[in-house]
């Protein structure tokens, strides 16, 4: 990827200090590459000071307040009393308990569904536009979906209610649907009216687009005639693929429940897989709001896969969104060949896609699930982290599952470590090739063999200027259940080094089969929180003892010696259910009540983890906003989806975050929090869809709505003042429309003149 242009940005300068203000001198020769762009730090002279306080914010260093961070489980009765109804396929698990007890010789383990209790996600979003973040969780049949309305703006305290007036909030907002089996969800502004609309993915029924008018949702039909009956949608995401200012919808699929997933994973290669579908947004006034154009957009004739999630990301920094599909390998099976790649599809700029061969991206096959994008080593290149089955679960899979499914005895107790199942980092480069980092070592000499993950979020938990990771996930798989303890990984200085953080309680999710994880600043304190959704819970025995077992109890000495290098190993546990792990035979090995009767899984729930924010580090919260409908030349969708954000605190490293919507099973809040450490100002640069750059100077602990300004400063030297005229006209009109106030109008104009890429 060739360098395209130069970008001026604050950084490490030579200069003189006058009290609280630094007078900048000449550039100290600093150059770097960011996202394939060659950047040169080139501010010359001038005084930088806060426009309100007059105090300077430029720092030659980037100190960070070192404090402890803990995620505390929110103690809110509305949340803790919530019990999620499982998916319709849970009845197969419950019936199987009786079958394996009464007639184990005729028990068909393959008839059990994978993840039969469902895999619910969560939306963190402001449903009613009152300034605080609400939570939406889909439920199984027989129960309304849950809409938790945040009362922060009304009471000043973080608490939630599911009651609105005389009924439920879900009923008031018309998102209940108690007869449907909902799992994956995503959110986006499909009609550019400023409200968040949502999509609910249902099992055994058409999925739903619900359009928000500010007071309730209205269902909008999506034609699904090209979708095979009985398909199992897994995740969805929005992105404006053709640049018309309307976000389009992509839905991913896995093979159908209850039995097709088993056959697709173990017995056949591609025949039962379902192709992801691309629905083009034609606008709210069209006869059909969304139209399926999958085959017309470059996907015809390509193999379908077991696809858990997808992301629209501007992979090559050319101003249009490309597509990442996160495909699952299924169990390792040489006879079936490799299938589980992270497939990258490049957009040609018109909304037509061509696949980038895995040889070009250098991404090996594996059991990919969830994803978090960013620049984890601050080298200016796009990276991502993918959740997988986990090193511990990968080994137990070989021992138990393949054993009862008829694998040769010599494969049931292998001494190898399933590093290929470990969640891992993919570090980008200027060439578009990625380098994998599987099970790296932390500075303390621990090997990061990680637990299982599905939902994942990348965010700066302590606001020190780099992106950390939080993930969770469990699995119900045939004869065993694998809860997954959950993890928070701390980024150490943005150089590609991570370690296990004690911010999350060890074994936080061992009692649950979790799936979705979504993030947002729920208490509006400038520090990111997250929520985790469980499809079911694991019961204790009738005498109060745990039915969980340690992985150590089933691995051999070689495996235990190696895996004990992981900081997660001692808390890693599994739940045997339908197999006796001592001799790999079918029998009920799960929880029993006081009378010795088997106990099925309990209902799922919602777990909210609040960042206690024990840190003096500064931050800035940025909310991108497209200007279509506000400006004559505005072309970016209202959510700003598809933008690439680059943030540089004074004296700090530049971090990059894609502004994307939708991940595995759910979606994060669309606001981004960037950490400044002890710096008091910085600069945000946005590459908008359409290939226009805007820059804005920002200050500590403020919330900024960054509106698209459709003026390209890279042509300023040739346009005889046209760029500044365009800027002035745009910010004047944004102020006139009420998008920005007078102070932001002045700041945007000055920043975009002085800090032009």
From TrEMBL:
InterPro entries: FG-GAP (IPR013517), Integrin_alpha_N (IPR028994). It comes from the Eukaryota. Signal peptide: none annotated. Keywords: Signal. The keyword Signal applies. The keyword Ribosomal protein does not apply. PANTHER family: ATP_GTP-BINDING PROTEIN (PTHR46580:SF4), SENSOR KINASE-RELATED (PTHR46580). This is ASPIC/UnbV domain-containing protein. It comes from Ostreobium quekettii.
């Amino acid at each position: 990827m060739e360098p395209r242009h130069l970008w001026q940005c604050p950084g490490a300068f030579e200069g003189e200090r006058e009290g609280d203000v630094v007078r900048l001198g000449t550039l100290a020769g600093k150059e770097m590459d960011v996202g394939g762009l060659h950047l040169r730090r080139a501010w010359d002279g001038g005084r930088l000071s806060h426009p309100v306080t007059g105090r300077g914010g430029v720092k030659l260093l980037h100190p960070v307040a070192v404090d402890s961070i803990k995620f505390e489980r929110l103690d809110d009765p509305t949340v803790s009393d919530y019990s999620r109804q499982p998916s319709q396929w849970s009845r197969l698990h419950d019936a199987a308990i009786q079958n394996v007890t009464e007639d184990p010789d005729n028990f068909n383990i393959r008839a059990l569904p994978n993840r039969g209790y469902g895999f619910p996600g969560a939306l963190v979003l402001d449903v009613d536009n009152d300034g605080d973040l609400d939570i939406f969780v889909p439920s199984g049949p027989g129960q309304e979906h849950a809409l938790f309305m945040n009362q922060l703006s009304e009471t000043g305290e973080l608490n939630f209610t599911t009651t609105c007036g005389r009924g439920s909030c879900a009923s008031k907002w018309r998102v209940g649907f108690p007869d449907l089996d909902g799992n994956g969800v995503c959110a986006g502004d499909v009609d550019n009216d400023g409200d968040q609309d949502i999509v609910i993915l249902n099992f055994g029924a058409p999925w739903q687009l619900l359009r928000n008018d500010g007071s309730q949702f209205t269902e909008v039909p999506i034609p699904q005639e090209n979708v095979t009956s009985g398909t199992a949608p897994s995740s969805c995401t929005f992105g404006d693929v053709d640049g018309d200012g309307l976000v389009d919808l992509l839905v991913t699929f896995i093979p159908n429940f209850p039995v097709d997933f088993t056959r697709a994973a173990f017995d056949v290669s591609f025949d039962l897989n379902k192709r992801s579908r691309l629905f083009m947004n034609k606008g709210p006034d069209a006869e059909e709001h969304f139209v399926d154009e999958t085959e017309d957009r470059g996907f015809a004739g390509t193999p379908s896969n077991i696809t858990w999630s997808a992301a629209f990301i501007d992979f090559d920094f050319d101003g249009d969104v490309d597509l990442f599909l996160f495909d699952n390998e299924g169990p390792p099976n040489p006879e079936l060949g490799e299938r589980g790649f992270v497939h990258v599809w490049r957009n040609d700029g018109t909304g037509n896609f061509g696949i980038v061969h895995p040889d070009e991206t250098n991404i090996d096959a594996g059991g990919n699930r969830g994803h978090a994008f960013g620049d984890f080593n601050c080298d200016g290149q796009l990276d991502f982290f993918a959740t997988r089955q986990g090193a511990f679960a990968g080994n137990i899979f070989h021992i138990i599952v393949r054993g009862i499914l008829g694998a040769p005895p010599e494969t049931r107790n292998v001494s190898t470590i399933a590093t290929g199942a470990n969640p891992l980092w993919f570090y980008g480069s200027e060439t578009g090739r990625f380098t994998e980092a599987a099970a790296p070592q932390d500075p303390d000499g621990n090997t990061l063999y990680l637990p299982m993950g599905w939902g994942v979020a990348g965010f700066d938990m302590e606001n020190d200027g780099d992106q950390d990771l939080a993930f969770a996930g469990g699995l119900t798989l045939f004869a065993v259940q694998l809860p997954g303890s959950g993890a928070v990984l701390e980024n150490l200085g943005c150089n590609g080094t991570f370690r296990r953080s004690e911010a999350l309680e060890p074994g936080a999710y061992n009692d649950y089969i979790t799936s979705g994880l979504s993030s947002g600043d729920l208490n509006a304190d400038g520090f990111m929180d997250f929520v985790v959704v469980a499809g079911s819970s694991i019961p204790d025995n009738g005498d109060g003892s745990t039915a969980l077992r340690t992985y150590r109890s089933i691995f051999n000495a070689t495996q235990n010696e190696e895996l004990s290098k992981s900081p997660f190993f001692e808390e890693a546990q599994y739940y045997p259910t339908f197999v006796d792990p001592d001799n790999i035979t079918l029998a009920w090995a799960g929880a029993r009540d006081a009378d010795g009767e088997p106990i099925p899984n309990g209902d799922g729930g919602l777990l909210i983890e609040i960042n206690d924010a024990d840190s003096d580090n500064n931050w800035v919260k940025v909310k991108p906003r497209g200007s279509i409908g506000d400006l004559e030349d505005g072309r970016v969708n209202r959510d700003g989806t598809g933008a690439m954000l680059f943030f540089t605190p004074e004296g700090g490293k530049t971090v990059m975050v894609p502004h994307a919507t939708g991940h595995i099973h759910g979606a994060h809040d669309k606001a981004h929090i960037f950490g400044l450490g002890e710096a008091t100002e910085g600069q945000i640069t946005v590459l908008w869809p359409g290939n226009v750059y805007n820059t804005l100077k920002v200050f500590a602990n403020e919330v900024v709505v960054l509106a698209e300004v459709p003026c390209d400063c890279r042509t300023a030297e040739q346009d005889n003042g046209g760029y500044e005229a365009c800027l002035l006209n745009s910010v004047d009109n944004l102020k006139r429309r009420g998008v920005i106030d007078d102070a932001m109008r002045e700041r945007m104009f000055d920043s975009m003149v002085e800090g032009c890429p």
